[in-house]
Protein 1
Amino acid sequence: MRVYNQDLRANLEIVRRELRLTDNPILHHISELHSKDQAPFSHLLPVYVFPARQVEVGGFLDPATATCHSAKTDEPSSRCTDRLPEFPTTIESPYPPARSVVAGFPRCGPHRARFWTESVWEFKNGLESIGSGLAIRVGRIDDILENMLHEFKRESAVKREVVGVWITAEDGVAEKTDERNVFRVAGLKKIPVRVWKDEKYLIDDRDLPYMTPKEVPDSFAEFRKTAACLRTASRKTLPRPASLPPLPGRIPAQPIPFRVPTTLDGWIAGLLKPLYDTPVAAIIPPWPLTAVPQHADLGGEAYALERLKHLIASGATTTYRYPHLSSHGEDRRTKLTAWLALGCITARQINEHLLDFEEGRTALGHHADGYGIGENGGTASIRAELLWRDYLRLCTRKYGCKLFRLEGFKGDMDRAWKHGDDPDVNRQIQRFVEGRTGVPVVDTALREMSSTGYTSDHARQIAATYFGRQLGIDWRIGAEWFEYCLVDYDVSGNWGHWQYWAGVGNDPVGYLNLGRKREGNEEQEDCLKARLDADNLVTLQSNRREMQRTLY
Ligand SMILES: Cc1cc2nc3c(=O)[nH]c(=O)nc-3n(C[C@H](O)[C@H](O)[C@H](O)COP(=O)(O)OP(=O)(O)OC[C@H]3O[C@@H](n4cnc5c(N)ncnc54)[C@H](O)[C@@H]3O)c2cc1C
């Protein structure tokens, strides 16, 4: 009989878009149990998987696992082991390329890939600072889980077992499939799975008045009524955990044929490498050197909080949405979305900071206009915008895969869409992607987005309206292009808005007439002035002059 000197009972946490320590329900709960010595496990293993269906992971294929091919016969001969192969090799990924369904764009472009990696890495550093760590892997969540559960128990002087798998719920269709697969894999080993609520939104799921997703109204205005007072609609944030149970000693490695790096630079290089080889990389025109990117921030929780504090201290949260006041430029928009999308910060953290400022509870922002005098137009607008995020997420919950259907939530089968198989339409798509449509305001938005990963809400609306309603092209291609470009890509935010502006989503939407092309593009210029408030245009307009020098 085998004698164990000590049991190792590990809980496995599959980390998703909750890349933060503060206001993190799972970590808060574990930390509480750990501090009272009540945790039902001795070790915690947080695991993050870069999903192969969303981001190209070919840059991590390990040549040492390649199948060697004879130069003459080109037939597989043996598994390569510890030396570089003599003959050309093929390393096959077990996963299909991460490409969009309609147009075949890579699903995640360089701006997001970098920001995402930085955010994961900073989360890993944060976990290490409180006694834990993070195993970062690539592939499919269920494959990694299966491998981990299998390898975990391998020969050891200590009895090692995984006693639970925890994961946070998400509403996207593919994310739901991942969840089901986690249940399947863990179920085969009789390991219980616990699904936690996603708490990065403004209004907590438990406070919504709907019994089922079907009850979510098809109009934002209607939904808005569910939270009469947005200031108090949010729950309290959770404190940063003081410490966590340690990692189990031996952590199963990344399964072949991949090998994962041990540095941030290695991760970024691995994710960017396949992108440079795609045709898309070659067609994006260069960003004019003198133009200032509006979103040049780094990924990770610390940077998100720094940005939020800066917005409050500078008074930008008070002047938000007031185009004629003095805060032109960089701070006209919060630019918090990329962090929100990855869960580096939560909407309720933003709300809580705004409340502290409005009530003068902390010294932050005490020199700024609006300090200590209650809600103002700016802070109220930010809350209203954050509610939009909540709403779009609930629409995804309600409509599932209809989010990606051409006929949209409305099921509008009457519209005749143009498709890329027509050569003329294909050329229009190409020009849209390149930011060379000939409509300056659209081109400015598109080129800013592809070059920097960000453009403002109004600029996005204009580009989406132009593509979906003016050109009448299959709007999903535009949505897929945005998915590639945007640093703040979020499945509900992007696809929900594209439906809306293409006129197949919820809420009746006004038609944003960008005007026909004509001499001097005066109409577009007027439209630009009307739709894009002075805000980011200080940057955008000076960028535009630079761009037009390159473009026209
Ligand atoms: C075609 C199109 C595609 C979009 N794709 C995305 C996307 O992939 N991911 C995404 O998060 N948002 C998306 N949006 C919504 C919006 O454009 C961005 O949230 C906003 O531009 C982000 O900039 P910001 O952080 O400076 O936001 P601000 O304008 O400063 O707003 C503050 C916060 O409110 C939220 N917010 C603001 N405007 C909206 C809005 N219209 N809808 C929902 N939430 C909003 C954001 O979380 C934002 O961080 C899209 C909009 C359009 C028209």
Protein 2
Amino acid sequence: MNRLTVRDCLWSDVVRVLEEERPEAVSALSVFAIFRESVETGIFCGLATEIDIIQHPNWIFADLAEHREYHCVSPDISVGRALRIMNQHGLNVLPVLERQSFEGVVTQHSILNMLLQRERALRKKARILNKLLADEHKQVVSWSTRLAKLHEASRSLLTVLAHTSIQSDLLQMGVESLSKLLEARYGAIGILDESGGLQHFVFTGIGPELAERIGPFPQGKGLLGLVIQENVSLRLDDMSTHPQSAGFPPHHPLMKTLLAVPIAHRDRVYGRIYLSDKENGEPFNQQDEDLALSFAHSLSLVLDNAREIEEVKLARQSLDYMAHFDHLTGLPNRTLLKDRVDQAIYHAHRNRRMIGVLFLDLDNFKLVNDTLGHTCGDQLLKCVARRISDCLREGDTAVRLGGDEFIVLLPDLTDTQDAAKVASKVLESLQPPFAIDRHEVYVSASIGISIYPHNANNMEELLSSADGSMYYAKKLGKNNYQFFTPEMNGSAQTYIKLEKHLRRALEQDEFMLHYQPQVDVKTGTIIGMEALIRWISPELGMVSPADFIPLAEDTGLIVPIGAWVLKTACLQARSWQKIGRPTRVAVNLSSRQFHPVQTQQGSQHPLLNAVLNALDEADLSPELLELEITESILMQHLDSTMELLNTLKNIGVRLSIDDFGTGYSSLSYLKRFPIDILKIDKSFVNDITTDPSDKAIVAAITAMAKQLNLEVVAEGVETLAQLDFLCELQCDFVQGYYFSKPLSPDEVMTVQRQGILVG
Ligand SMILES: Nc1nc2c(ncn2[C@@H]2O[C@@H]3COP(=O)(O)O[C@H]4[C@@H](O)[C@H](n5cnc6c(=O)[nH]c(N)nc65)O[C@@H]4COP(=O)(O)O[C@H]3[C@H]2O)c(=O)[nH]1
């Protein structure tokens, strides 16, 4: 309001008179303005009041003007100043002149009036302002309450987050808080899953049954889809008129007003919140939207954080899993086993109990892996793991150490025989064939058992004792279990030592071949030589092939060793040929060479390769090479075996069956395979003079071989009596100590120079 001036307070009841006029009766409050010549345009001469007239009843206005002290004020001075002038001169009225022109009068009364008016106006304004202020205050208070509530809700979200990882709890709490805050009847949160689809709905104002009927929202369509895709908020005052409101599922309660905001953080949209129908019926306003957005932002931070925590947790879990479990079978691994063994030892020690450790190694797993491939091998390991686990009680642990090695931990044994029972149960469970990729696969296992506290006091020792007894079980023919004894320990150590040295033997040139002559009984001439490998180890001395060949087969080392034997034998036969004494050389083949280690599709069989290379390198005629295979080799994979034998036969090499009579002795297959020679096993020859049935067997084999046009070589002939019997049975060729032990190449030269062998 402006400053109050004299102009604002001019007195309205002013009577303009001429100076020569005589006063007449007027109202008590009137003031006379006296002019010369004209009341409109004349010169202002002064003022007179009712009191002046009463005091001088006979005077004309000119006298009264002259009698009154003349003071005037400008209209722009403040009322305060005017009052001060009146006070100073004892006046209650003043003329107001602006540049000599009469503007009116100001009286104490008019000023008072104006002041009262002004005060009233000010009071009114103050009231309005006060109300405004009160309203604003109320607004501020309500905002601060809302903000406090929002803050509280956000804090609760974080608290929930700290105490639970279940996101739906978090969201439920979020949507409830927000709906309450904005007084919305319905509210819901939808969160996007990894593939961008809307998942994880939480509702408020809608019961679980209805929520179920509403079902999932159409993904990406309708209004709410827009909110997510465009990352924008949306406010509708009347949904029924909006063309895209069809995006709501049909069972959703009818809604009029809608507020939807995205839950987004750093351009990443996590989902959306929608609220509808405020309880007071009003549409959602900008403040509601701001509040919902602020809330959604808090929620997005929480979700972002929760996701990060979840991701870290999952990563930690999978790291933890990887550290303690075998990825293929899902069984615990060595690390977890260590924990369990330590715990078991602790309890067993306190309760004076025993612990059993079973070390299980599959017997023919390598063959399965090599012939059927790694995928089938892996499947087999999984099935084996399941069968082992099925044999165990709660509290026992099956562990995969790696490869085809498993451990069973029996933490609470009262009797060592219980460990034996479990072992035999496991062996039995492995007997039925496994159906792997349309193949029926048979496997067995060798199990070694060690017992705490009898055999060892910690995990490493328990495993090593069980490992030792497992080797012993293998040695005893596989598919059985053995307890640990100190002798076994020695034997296992030897086996392990052997393996270590065998791995280096080939490259360190520690092998050589000896040759045992095969003799024509009638003439004494040498018809061939069987190549027999010898290993002279600098550390172990002479090692028998009966000891290291099975190990070479188990470890796969037989393949390079076998190739070396073929090459060396062919070179030797070629050198005999070169000096004019062509002699056939017979080479033993092991099953592992025959049934190969993973052949690549379309590539040549590794054995065929090795044979061709050896012949080629030595430049040897194929008919001077004989390949000895056992009956059991023949019986595995009949079709592929037949194919390979035919190929070898076509090359021109000769084929013989070693140890004939000890295996299936199926005579019928002899007709089917391109075999040239049968070698009667030395076990029959050994007792031929004393055991009539052995004699009968040898007789039958010889007769049948003759029928089939096969040569027969009897092995292990040590005595003249045995030789006589064999001659009687018309067995033409023999091999054995009677004529000669296996000879070094130099010794062979000496014998060859003699031309014939005499027993
Ligand atoms: N008691 C007795 N034994 C006789 C007599 N005549 C020969 N022997 C022995 O009987 C074994 C015959 O070889 P095998 O049955 O193929 O049995 C062989 C063969 O299965 C395997 N082997 C030897 N060299 C090789 C090889 O280069 N490759 C493969 N895969 N196996 C081989 O090792 C086995 C043992 O070979 P060796 O110790 O050389 O033992 C040889 C030989 O020394 C006899 O009159 N009395």
